[in-house]
Amino acid sequence: MEPRFLLLSDVAAELNVSDSQVYHMVRSGELPAIKIGGRGQWRVERARLEEYIQRKYTETAEWVQNNPLAERDTE
Predict the structure, then answer these.
(1) C-alpha span between 32 and 23 (Å, rounded)
(2) Domain Helix-turn-helix, which positions (predicted)?
(3) pLDDT reported for residue 69
(4) Which of 3, 21, 36, 64 would give a disulfide with 17, using CB separation of 3.0 to 4.6 Å?
(5) Average pLDDT over residues 29-36
(6) C-alpha–C-alpha distance, residues 50 and 36, integer Å
(7) Is 72 inside a domain boundary?
(8) What is the longest distance spanned by two Cα atoms in the chain?
(9) Which domain holds residue 12?
């Protein structure tokens, strides 16, 4: 059974980005997370990570649709 909550380092590994990038995503509100415990450790719920990934797929698809590759002159 997969854990419900992930460490920021787990999220970074899952997304193949640095820990500091994930920390910035969490602090900016781009990726929903919670602070728990006396030391205020960040945790990301797996479901929220999956929602984030799906949102990024949608955003990317919209960007690709609005920014098609320029046709190259084949001559």
Answers:
(1) 11
(2) 9-56
(3) 86
(4) 21
(5) 98
(6) 21
(7) no
(8) 67
(9) 5-66
